[in-house]
Amino acid sequence: MAQKEIKTIGVLTSGGDAPGMNAAVRAIVRAGIAKGYRMMGIQRGYNGLLNGECYEMNLRSVSEIIHRGGTVLYTARCLEFKTKEGQQKGYEKCREMGIDALVVIGGDGSFMGARALANLGIPCIGIPGTIDNDIACTEYTIGYDTAMNTAVEMIDKLRDTTQSHDRCSVVEVMGHNAGYLALNVGIATGAMAVLLPEKEFDFQRDILDKMARTQFSGKKHFIIIVSEGVVPTQDLANAIQAATGVDTRATILGHVQRGGSPSLRDRVVASYMGYYAVDLLDRGIYNRVVALKGEKAVDYEVNEALAMKKTIDEYMLEVCNTISI
Ligand code: ADP
Ligand code: F6P
């Protein structure tokens, strides 16, 4: 599609919400209007696209949202959009609603949806928005900083009560299938052990032996971070109590990590990426995923972005394991 053929740009948020998504929507809408486009907000991700839940957004539609968590466009998961029929219907809905190009804020799954639309002829740009930071092409995803800070705030509170009772707290944090959030939170809260999906863990070596060593050096309370899905958190807490006699409690932080006012970092990155996405469309550069590389926005062709792989930083793992004693 030639550059001038884009008159209307749609924006949607998809997958799990993340703090900072609103700041991105605000930037996209205002950058689009500044560059002469008509801007349409699509509600509830691809579900809303298929249902035609769409409204025109003006400069004031995005007032008072930069500091708000969640997403004013709502979000959803949409199974139908994973089918060829659903994608075709999405394409037809774009045409029907006059949406010439789309900015999708979400994770890899959402980008697969965007790629399907791009293949059908709707130029798309993806913006990484997820608390998990699990998108390979980018060093940073919108929402990651806020979610980690929320987890740290909660675990600091847990530490007070854990320490007062000479207890062990096993805390489950989110992260989907990735341990980035857990590792950083583990370092920041001084956790004795951090269990990550990327690393096999051994109950005796990683928990019991380490606990014994720290007890020998005088420690009486313990924080253990478990990235969701590694091991059932309550089972692990029960096993620790049975094996050590240390009173142990399990806490699942859950969706509280997805909420709250976005941090400065999330607001700035979201604003930067939102503007950058519209700038790409305006320059006739389509079907890309925006990424952060050393604090600079860059972009990758969507197939290339989706084929990339990301690994846990072994050095940071060493930092975590060595000083958490
Ligand atoms: P995230 O975008 O955070 O990775 P999901 O994996 O749940 O979250 O994906 C969000 C939505 O993106 C899904 O509900 C679906 O509508 C769409 N989606 C996911 N995978 C695909 C796919 N392979 N093809 C088309 N759309 C997809
Ligand atoms: O991707 C964000 C995330 O919060 C993951 O950390 C978690 O695995 C998942 O979404 C939870 O999804 P839901 O909102 O469907 O419970």
Question: What does it look like?
Answer:
The chain has 325 residues and is α/β, with parallel strands linked by helices. The protein folds into two domains: 182 residues, Rossmann fold (3-Layer(aba) Sandwich); 114 residues, Rossmann fold (3-Layer(aba) Sandwich), CATH 3.40.50.460. It is 43% helix and 18% strand. It is built from eleven helices and eleven strands. The strands form two sheets. A seven-stranded mixed sheet has the order 3-2-1-4-5-10-11, sandwiched between helices. The longest helix is centred in the middle third of the chain and has 21 residues. It is elongated. 50% of the residues are buried. The chain binds adenosine-5'-diphosphate and 6-O-phosphono-beta-D-fructofuranose. The site of 6-O-phosphono-beta-D-fructofuranose has 9 residues, from loops.
